[in-house]
Structure formats: C-alpha cells, structure tokens
Design goal:
alpha/beta, four-stranded parallel β-sheet, 11 strands, elongated
Amino acid sequence: MDYQNWGPRGISAPARTELPEVPVERGMVLEEVQSGWVGAVTRVEKSGGMHVVALEDRRGKSRSFRLGFGFLLEGQPIRLMPPAPRPAAAGPAAGRTASGSVRVAGQRAQVAKASRIWVEGKHDAELVEKVWGDDLRVEGIVVEPLHGIDDLAAAVADFRPGPGRRLGVLVDHLVPDSKESRIAEAVMASPGAAGNVLIVGHPYVDVWQAIRPAVLGIDKWPAVPHGQDWKTGILKAFGWPHATKEDIGLGWQKLLGAVRTYADLEASLLGRVEEVIDFLTVP
C-alpha cells in the first residue's frame, strides 16, 4: 500500500464531465430521465421561446419535453440540442430562372393575355408560380386555380376558347380509366376545344407528390391508408400538425419551401407544365 498518497484531498470541486451535445433528429429514440418516458422523436417545435421535442412511445402516445439535459440516447446521457441547420438548398444558377430558362434581363411583365393555365387548386398554382413564374410573366400567361375539375366542362364552355384565347389545364391523377380521364375526354369532345384546349396531367394523387422525396430528406412518400384524407395522412406520417385546414396549409408551405428549382420536381410534372406553356405561347 502506498502510504505516501494518504492525506487531505480536494473533493469540493470534482472534475466536470461534459456531456455530448446531440442535435435532435426525427425518428431518434430517447429516454427522458426524470419521467422515464421512452419514445421516438416525431416533431420539434419552438414554443414560448424554447425548443420542445415530442416523443411518441410504442403505444402511439406522445409527450413533449424541453430540449437540453436529462435525456438518454442508446443508454448514454446527452444534452439534446436544436436540429442542426440544413445546408441552404441550391437556387437557380446565375442567369437562369427556377425553371432553367435563360433569365431575360430588364424584361417587364407583359399585360396578361387572354390565354390561361388552369390547375386544380391553390397548391398547384403556388408550385407552378414558384418554378415557372418568371417565364409566365414574360409571356403574359396567368395561372388560375379551379378548386377541382368536376365542373370543368361548364367552366371551359364559359371561357369560350378559340384562336388567341387558348386554355391549358393541368389535372391531378390523370391516369387511364380514372374519373379525371373521363372528364378530360368529354371536354375535348366539346365544340371549340380541338386545337384551342389542351388537358394534361400527372399520375400523382396530389401535386404534393410531384416534389422529389430526396428534396424532403425521405426515401419515398409515405403510404396513406385507404379511406383516410391523403394530405392529412401525409402530415401525420411526418409528425406534423394535421387536425385543421390551417395545419394543412402550414404543412404545404413547409413542403413548398423545400422547392428551389425545376430539379426538385419529378419529370412527369415538368414535362406536362412545359407542354402547356408551349401550347399557349407557340403560334
């Protein structure tokens, strides 16, 4: 025994242990030490000036906790930090619009032409405006939401399409034998439609799906159970608020905010929008 080490020791200031600081991530499984609650991270939000994390346990129940100390990750204590900032998404290249077109310097928006692009809803219109808005202003083409296409035949008749007054319609879920395809066929058979109306569509249930999953940091869009509202199901799968129309709108704004250029969208939408623009602008 080493008697030389006997004597008074400084025990009033033990060595401080620095806990690892770990940015919170969706899907991370944590234990909150004080309550013993164990769950996966479903969302992180700022409330009352502080970050709060929601943990959902294996029974589907959720509780919220303030970020900071008091969490275990894989059994090890950590200091839970706010999400790491995402790298800024690449915007359009210099001299290019979000659609990839050459930007026209000093060009003022033209007075709106009689021709129109119709889309099914507000979200479709906002997505088209974000990517193709610069091009459409140069061409003088306005995008208008229809709020559904059940009454498309009557709306087209009221529009009275003709030479110099063309109409391009972008439809969701335009696939063979669907309700949408039957409506489109009936419209195109109506007087004045041939050569003056173009109806195109993408295969997605909703235009949200035209955003490439990788842009949102996911492998693929979540599957929504049959009979459940699709947008509500998507937001629920993301762990985002989904109970009200306001929740749906805020969720869409998050998704739209991830879109910077045409490269963030699926080719099946890109081709259809470009087809409509060419139809309305090429003599």
